Each structure stands twice: as structure tokens, then as C-alpha cells.
Amino acid sequence: MWKPGVQQFNTQIRVQHRHEVRVNGAPDISYVDAALPLDCCNWKGRGGSESVSAGTLVVADTAELTMWYRQDISERDRILLRDNADLAYEVTNIENVEMRNQYMIVKVKRVVNG
User: Fold this and answer.
1) What is the pairing mode between strands 88-96 and 26-53?
2) Tens digits of per-residue pLDDT, 43-62?
3) Is the dihedral of CA 23, 28, 30, 34 positive or negative?
């Protein structure tokens, strides 16, 4: 059985679900807190990449979270690092480790204009 190679889950995060409403055919996207919004995880930054798009520097910052399993997190959600709205990461991938519903690995990405 797989166990994470981390000592503790000590980084606080806030989980927010995507809420989409159609207004004149275009989606109006907002985020609302999950039923249990605050959680703790092990946060590992995976670095970022820089590119130039339309003459603007764009930085894509990625990270990997290891945490206890939560079935309410999906690829449409976002995670706020340390409950800070300026550090909002979009969920890109979720792995239920060994399908045991015990641990999960969540990959997130944040894009910032430089």
C-alpha cells in the first residue's frame, strides 16, 4: 500500500467550486466555497515556465498537493494557497492513489502576466 513520503500536511488551502451561469449565451463564471472549504495538504512547488504571448510575459506556476482524499474536488475547481485570493490555482489533474479513497495527489497551475 502506498503511503506519502511526507511528514505532515501543514499547508492550509481553501477549496472553491466553479459556478457557471449562462448570460446571453456567454458563461458567467464565479467561484463559491466548498461545503468544507479549509483543508491541509503537503504543497510542493514544481516550478514554472515563462513565455511571451502577444508581447506580454506570461508565467505558468505549477504545484503538486498530497492530501487526504476528498471526493468533492474536481478538475473544474480552484485552490487558494494559504487562503489568499491572489494565489489562486486551477486544478488540472486529480489522482486517487491506488483507488483506495485514502490519499489523493492534486496537480494545480496558476498563470500570471508579468
Assistant:
1) unpaired
2) 999 988 888 878 888 889 99
3) positive
Nearest alpha carbon to residue 74 among 38, 44, 103, 106: 106
Q: Which residue has the cell 480552484?
A: 78
Three-state secondary structure call for residue 107: strand
pLDDT at 52: 83
Question: Percentages helix, strand, coil for the chain, rounded to the nearest 5?
Answer: 5, 70, 25
The residue assigned the cell 479513497 is: 101
Q: How far apart are the first and last CA of the chain?
A: 43
Nine-digit cell at 90? 486551477
